[in-house]
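Project standup — Tuesday

K.O.: blocked on the structure for the chain from last sprint. Re-posting the sequence here as requested.
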Amino acid sequence: MKIRSATAADIPQIAEIYGRSVQEEYASFEHIPPDAAEMLERFNSVVEKGYPYLVAEIDGQIAGYVYASAHRPRPAYQKTVESTVYVAPAFWRRGVAVALMQELITRSRAAEFREMIAIVACSKDANLDEIASIRLHRQLGFADSGRLKGVGYKHDQWLDIVLLQLSL
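H.V.: unblocked you, prediction finished:
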């Protein structure tokens, strides 16, 4: 597995990974997957602001991607980033998310960001210990910072979000 900075050429595969997640999972609160052109605009917006955007490549395929972005737009939050990570199902449980997040944390520290926030969606009845993304973040040192109940509606149900935080 090779972890590297993402390029515009990676966007079609990134859009495919994200699009499947939008349609089948709760990770994103979007309802309609953005096309590759929209994903390219989003990618450019992130990298133009100096945030890290990385991919994991295995046998020439993008196995997953991760990036940091502004947690909030106001200047007071300029040293706080929000992490986003997605892995293609064919590469689940192969250490891709861990490797991506570890490199994102390393690069975010090098860029002198102070705090990293992860936002994980879940159903209202979810056992947080059973949610892979929450286990991943806790394994990497993120601490639970709160739960907002019923803030998103997708796939015919109200969803919670769990906030996790890592001091960089």
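K.O.: great, moving the ticket to review. The helical segments are 11-24, 36-48, 96-110, 132-139. The longest strand covers residues 143-154.
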